[in-house]
Amino acid sequence: MNIKSICCIGAGYVGGPTMAIIAAKCPHIKVTVVDLNEARIAAWNDADVTKIPIYEPGLSDIVAEARGRNLFFSTNVDQAIDEADMIFISVNTPTKTYGIGKGMAADLKYIELCARQIASVSKTDKIVVEKSTLPVRTAEAIKNILQNTGNGVKFQILSNPEFLAEGTAVTDLLNPDRVLIGGDGDAEGQEAVNALEAIYANWISRDRILTTNLWSSELSKLTANAFLAQRVSSINAMSELCEKTGADVNEVARAIGMDSRIGPKFLKASVGFGGSCFQKDILNLVYIAKSYALNEVADYWEQVIIMNDHQKRRFANTIVSTLYNTVSGKKIAFLGWAFKKDTNDTRESAAIYVADYLLNEQAHVAVFDPQVQELQMQSDLNYLATRSEKENASGITVQQDPYEACKDAHAIAVLTEWDEFKSYDWHRIYANMKKPAFIFDGRNLLDGKKMEQIGFVFQAIGKGK
Ligand code: NAD
Ligand code: UDX
Predict the structure, then answer these.
(1) Residue from 59, 249, 339 to probe ligand 2 pocket by mutation (most atoms less than 8 Å from CB)
(2) Cis peptide, bond prior to residue 370, ω within 30 of zero
(3) Active-site residue 221, yes or no?
(4) Where are the beta strands (DSSP E) in 13-154?
(5) Model confidence over 248-275: pLDDT tens digits?
(6) Could you report how far apart the first and last alpha carbons of the chain are, in Å?
(7) How far apart are CA 291 and CA 286, in angstroms?
């Protein structure tokens, strides 16, 4: 099957960049990305391409190249479905906030809505691709919905989970470690797999395109995120022990990472992992394991989250205890709010939880982040519903200038590893702070020795004294 027209439902962090790359690499295919969120689509269509809604290094250039040629952003979901040979579902699958599985299971209501809309609109055969991260065996439910329309249209369902990481989405998409495609084993299923493989083969060598059955593909995505997050929790667990024993977690990470069986990546101790995926996907895995009564499996993976929550709380606690057991009325400057560098995404960012903790202790938090807007920070805190919106608004101040954020502060907390923080004029920052001036480096980003020479009292995650 030769694909000429693609529709992607969901113009978010995955749908937008993924489709921009497909459009850029496949000028012969028309790619339409649709979303219910009108403001988001308007931003994707902004004449000023630097105003697209997602900040990712290199993305605006790619959008500029393909938009209007074979890449389109629209709110007309029905029309895009109708015209497409292949439909990617790339909508959000957040943790359920209600009912059975609340706080653990993935909320599949957006997925089901998409399936129903595809079923009702389609007049020609379609390949439907699960791009969203889904619980294993979701394709079964999608199939059920699509195959019971009674209108004679044939659907093939593929699983094609996305492995890009935010902040490096463009390079990850251009040069992925692998592309995973799961499909049915029968002839029609294989034809659909081949059609999707042919799209990726426009820029990815075939030996990196892996095909499996549907369930392996769905489960591999949850497994990959669980393994990655587990490495972060493992090194974070060691960071606490390092602080007690005088070991240095960076040195430990380097020493173990040189073992080729362990490898050097994802061994950076931090204030805790954030992002929209790790916690959500592990909770989902835990829920699935529990639903099969695999309680030991569930407990094993849940510990990754428990450790991560502990790390965030521990970091905030250290700030309070070091500042003589009170931060009430004190100004604490936050460098960074995004969950990692090079993104404007703040979902599940550790900064939100550390701020929440410090606000409970009546600190005043002054934040600088190079990409995150004030409205987003306020809405992140309001979402926790720990205190009123008014209290949140007066509890944090958002600064456009890092030097202003740090002025008269008692302490600085580094929450995101933005490169620019390293090259600040730290002498100037020190001169304008309350003394003693503390830095709590939640990212092991700054040169501790240099900071101490300037006069700061410096503490980093996982550095023993
Ligand atoms: P997102 O929230 O940024 O985007 C999802 C978009 O889907 C939203 O703009 C929303 O308005 C839209 N949407 C929801 N229901 C819709 C409907 N019925 N019709 C049209 N539009 C609809 O989410 P995201 O970060 O892009 O994640 C999407 C999926 O990809 C999730 O399952 C996530 O787990 C997975 N994933 C995310 C990442 C990542 O780095 N963010 C990486 C890999 C996989
Ligand atoms: C993750 C997966 O890496 C990606 O493959 C998947 O598609 C989506 O989820 P993402 O959440 O965008 O990507 O970023 P990632 O680089 O994995 O970082 C997640 C969190 O872990 C961040 O808060 C990051 O700062 C933290 N982290 C990562 C560490 O604290 N230490 C590390 O060594 C690595």
Answers:
(1) 339
(2) no
(3) yes
(4) 30-34, 71-74, 86-89, 126-130
(5) 999 999 999 999 999 999 999 999 999 9
(6) 64
(7) 9
Distances in whole angstroms, Cα of residue 79 to Cα of each of 118, 120, 122: 11, 12, 10
pLDDT at 148 (0 to 100): 85
Distances (CA, A) of 271 to 43, 89, 309, 356, 459: 32, 33, 9, 14, 12
pLDDT at 1 over 90: no
User: What's the confidence (pLDDT) of residue 151?
Assistant: 83
CB 169 within 8 A of CB 59: yes
Residues 6+ apart with CB under 8 A from 434: 330, 331, 408, 409, 410
Percentages (nearest 5) of helix, strand, coil residues in the chain: 45, 15, 40
Q: Is there a contact between 463 and 440 (Cβ–Cβ < 8 Å)?
A: no
Rg of the chain over all Cα atoms, to the nearest angstrom: 24
Count how many residues are written for the chain: 465
Q: Is the pLDDT of residue 465 over 80?
A: no
- Which residue lies with its CA nearest to atom 23 of ligand 1? 92
Residue keyed to tokens 């309680």 = 295
